[in-house]
Amino acid sequence: MRNIRAVVWDVDDTLFDYTTADREGMRAHLAAEGLLAGYGSAEEALSRWREATDQQWARFAAGEIGFQAQRRDRVRVFLGAELTDDEADTWFQRYVGHYEAAWSLFPDVVPVLDALAASHRHAVLSNSSLHVQDRKLRVLGVHDRFEAILCAAELGVSKPEAAAFLAACESLDLPPHEVAYVGDHPEIDGRGAADAGLLSVWIDRHGGGAVVEDPAGRHRIASLAELPALLGADTRFGAPSTFG
């Protein structure tokens, strides 16, 4: 069994309920902008926004455009309009106000951070930017839980590239085999971490029961309550493990 000394965390949809905040924030934003009537339904509008977000984020992750450019292009694609940078930035910032009003951690986050506080070191590795994630973690009240916060925009490399995961390990001065990575995406987080030599933990909140390890080297859990048992942590977390 590995001696895991640190946990590196993804942020969005792992610690922070990004999907809900994005949907609720955009719904409120479109209503305030008077744009909902232009779509068949609110769900259709939200689906279009999600598609634009995924498309432009993929371009950013591939190094084709910068972080701010992907935000601007999300707005242009979604609205189907030729906007100046200032116009796109202003529209996006109005959305951000509604989005931030819906920010929240998942309910299992603080209990597991408390349970592992004495036994493991903690850091963050995100495919976002430090400006965004540093502020987010402060607002959510967990910033001081992490020794290091690394983001793709500043690193110049993004998950699933091994270099991103290895940079997180280097920031903790630990070898990969002594570090666990917890993230919500089965490929970007799960397979990427496993391929880089970390203990890969895929948090699959919408999946079924957990499995010990799949062929890609990912350990799947349905709740962070299962993490201490997987790490072999001596805690009083008290959550039943689904690992057999």
From TrEMBL:
Keywords: Hydrolase, Magnesium. GO terms for biological process: small molecule metabolic process. GO terms for molecular function: hydrolase activity. Its cofactor is Mg(2+). NCBIfam families: HAD-SF-IA-v1. This is HAD family hydrolase. It comes from Streptomyces galbus.
